[in-house]
Amino acid sequence: EYVLSCNVSGNEKLILDGQRMVAPERTTTLYNPGQVQEGDGTDCLVSIYLDPAFFEKELLSNRGVSVDKPIVNDPVLFDGFSKMISKLVGPEPDKQAEEPVFRILEHIIERYTALRIEQSPRACDWRVERAKAILIDRLDETVTLTELADELQLNKIALMRMFTKATGAPPISWQRIQRLQTARQLLKTGRSVVDTAYQTGFSDQAHLTRWFGRAYGISPARFARR
After folding, report:
1. pLDDT at res. 93
2. Number of domains present in the structure of the chain
3. How many beta carbons lie within 10 A of that of residue 112, not counting itself?
4. Do 131 and 152 have their domain in common?
5. Are 48 and 104 in contact (CB under 8 A)?
6. Radius of gyration over alpha carbons of the chain, in Å?
7. 195 and 143 assigned to the same domain
8. Could you tell me the CA-to-CA distances from 66 to 52, 59, 82, 83, 87 in Å, in that order?
9. pLDDT, block means (10 residues), the chain with 226 residues
10. Terminal CA-to-CA distance of the chain, rounded, Å?
11. What pLDDT is attached to residue 172?
């Protein structure tokens, strides 16, 4: 399997295919399937594991892909892993972590492999409006990148590029923005916070309150009373 790991804290002393190396703090290690490695010394290490057939399954390549550098000091990757961690760890883990994961993968593919991702459809492509329609029609549901990509017959990276180019945000983040805007409108009409949360796909009142506060700097309850 592919192993993509970020040394969030600590310097990792490792042996890769018999060679001794050091991966300093804030660097990323990139291992191909079949490579033999062992290491220690990190206080915090975050990893993504990919099946050897991942790139074929995701319609990114019809053959195996090889990462050409085992250790990279790349601030973009460190930032990407940090964002992924913030989605997965904390009082409210985000089930929709696909977007930050695929941003990391896109950067690794473009910078550290020979694979060239095919050009994504233009921002005016009909599939942008189709994706928006699906996300709006299912505003109270959890829509995944996998579902959208399958429906539009695109790989996930091409989908995210196309959609972000057209709207300024990737699909799942864009849907959350629409949920919050709809929540504002419902609260203005006198709907309760509990009912508004249910109608807009948030798991409960607390879930809506956290996201509403982040977006607008005020709780939905206070917003409704204004």
Report:
1. 57
2. 2
3. 20
4. yes
5. yes
6. 20
7. yes
8. 10, 16, 24, 25, 28
9. 93 92 95 89 90 84 81 96 83 71 92 80 85 95 91 92 93 95 96 95 92 94 91
10. 54
11. 92
Per-residue b or e along 158-185, where b marks 16 or more CB atoms closer than 10 Å to that residue's CB: bbbbbbbebbebbbbbbbbebbbebbbe
Three-state DSSP state, 215 = helix
Q: What is the pTM for the complete model shown?
A: 0.82
| Residue 136 and residue 77 share a domain | no
Contacts (Cβ under 8 Å, ≥6 apart) of 137: none
Inside any domain, residue 117: no
Which residues span the domain enclosing 96? 2-112
**Domain stops at, among 112, 140, 172:** 112
Residues 43 and 17 occupy one common structural domain: yes
What is the predicted pLDDT for the residue at 122?
75
> CA torsion sign, 103 to 133 to 135 to 224?
positive
72 DSSP assignment: E
User: Could you say which of 68, 83, 112 is where a domain stops?
Assistant: 112
SS3 44: strand
